[in-house]
Design brief:
Blueprint lengths: L2 H23 L1 E11 L2 E12 L2 H18 L1
Antiparallel strand pairs: 1-2
C-alpha cells in the first residue's frame, strides 16, 4: 500500500469511529438566529437537532421514566 492509501484508510476509520461514538452516545446541536433591522426583530429561527441511534434514545427515555416514577 502507498502512503496515500494508508492515510485514506486512517481518515475513513476515524470517521467511522466518530459516527459510531455519536450514534452510541448521542449528539445535540442547538442554536438560534435572529434577523433584525433597526432593532426590530423580523425573523427568528430556532434549531434543535438530536442525532443518536434508536436503541440509545429508547434506553435514555426508559431511564428517565424510571427516575420520574421513583421521585413520585
Amino acid at each position: 500500500m502507498t502512503g496515500e492509501e494508508l492515510e485514506f484508510q486512517e481518515d475513513e476509520l476515524s470517521l467511522l469511529e466518530t459516527l459510531d461514538h455519536v450514534l452510541d452516545r448521542g449528539l445535540v446541536i442547538a442554536g438560534e438566529i435572529t434577523i433584525a433591522v433597526a432593532d426590530i426583530d423580523l425573523i427568528f429561527v430556532g434549531l434543535n437537532v438530536l442525532l443518536t441511534s434508536v436503541e440509545t434514545a429508547r434506553e435514555v427515555l426508559h431511564e428517565r421514566k424510571k427516575k420520574i416514577l421513583s421521585d413520585e
